[in-house]
């Protein structure tokens, strides 16, 4: 089974593209969704974060106050690194567990990782698809979607990889600009799905036909 990483900057439309892959029958795992799940009370990651950052990051219900935690890590790179040191191994273990439960005949699975390159995770994937749009479009989409200010979104973009560098490091690209119609986006995903299924078949055939002890 091919492991396909799906990444892109904030507001580029990763969730929309992931949904199109899912509609074509590809299993989709979302690192952010798993992260949120693991950060709820009762999970080891939740306990580790509270132990490291203290009860000041909890809301009145005892859940993580994501706004408070976000303020901490954006204000201090060392704090961000400390959080990542807790989160990344936990999320990676959860992804591995979910992948292991998929049928062996699955051609490929898509794992959505927003900060894939920033986290140094590219070696964990057989193929990385980058969803791209222009920075101005990212700011406009996120301010409208999340109600954040332009300054807040720009601060997030500052800690994310340069879009051109992300595109250079990816194996393939899906454009999701303002000029991209719904049909064009679906066609791009369908073409990538076909290519990934063909690649999975080729690799599986090579493995099955490999001489013993080679």
Automatic annotation (TrEMBL):
Membrane keyword on record: no
> GO CC: one term?
cytoplasm
Q: What does this protein do?
A: Catalyzes the phosphorylation of the 3'-hydroxyl group of dephosphocoenzyme A to form coenzyme A.
Q: What is this protein called?
A: Dephospho-CoA kinase
Q: Which InterPro entries match?
A: Depp_CoAkinase (IPR001977), P-loop_NTPase (IPR027417)
Give the pathway.
Answer: Cofactor biosynthesis; coenzyme A biosynthesis; CoA from (R)-pantothenate: step 5/5
Residues reported to bind ATP: 11-16
Query: What organism is the protein native to?
Result: Thioalkalivibrio versutus
Which family would the database say this protein is a member of?
Belongs to the CoaE family.
Which NCBIfam families does the record associate with it?
dephospho-CoA kinase
Q: Where in the cell is it found?
A: Cytoplasm
Task: Identify the enzyme class.
Answer: transferase
- Is Transferase set as a keyword in this record? yes
Pfam families registered for this protein in UniProt: CoaE
Key words of the record: ATP-binding, Coenzyme A biosynthesis, Cytoplasm, Kinase, Nucleotide-binding, Transferase
Q: For this protein, what reaction is catalysed?
A: 3'-dephospho-CoA + ATP = ADP + CoA + H(+)
Entry's Gene Ontology molecular function annotations:
ATP binding; dephospho-CoA kinase activity
From the UniProt record, give one GO term of the biological process aspect: coenzyme A biosynthetic process
Could you tell me which residues belong to the region Disordered?
164-190
PROSITE patterns (alphabetical) = DPCK
């Amino acid at each position: 089974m091919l492991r396909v990483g799906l990444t892109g900057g904030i507001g580029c439309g990763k969730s929309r593209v992931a949904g199109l892959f899912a509609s074509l029958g590809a299993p989709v795992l979302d690192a952010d969704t798993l992260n949120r799940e693991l950060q709820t009370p009762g999970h080891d990651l939740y306990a580790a974060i509270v132990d490291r950052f203290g009860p000041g990051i909890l809301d009145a219900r005892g859940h993580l106050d994501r706004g408070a935690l976000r303020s901490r890590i954006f204000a201090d790179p060392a704090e961000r690194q400390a959080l990542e040191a807790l989160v990344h191994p936990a999320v990676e273990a959860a992804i591995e567990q979910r992948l292991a439960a998929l049928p062996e005949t699955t051609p490929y699975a898509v794992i959505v990782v927003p900060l894939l390159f920033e986290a140094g995770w590219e070696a964990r994937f057989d193929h990385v698809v980058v969803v791209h749009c222009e920075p101005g479009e990212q700011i406009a989409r996120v301010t409208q979607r999340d109600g954040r200010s332009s300054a807040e979104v720009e601060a997030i973009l500052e800690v994310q990889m340069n879009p051109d560098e992300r595109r250079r490091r990816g194996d393939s690209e899906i454009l999701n600009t303002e000029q991209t119609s719904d049909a064009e986006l679906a066609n791009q995903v369908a073409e990538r799905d076909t290519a990934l299924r063909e690649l999975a078949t080729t690799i599986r055939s090579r493995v099955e036909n490999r001489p013993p002890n080679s």
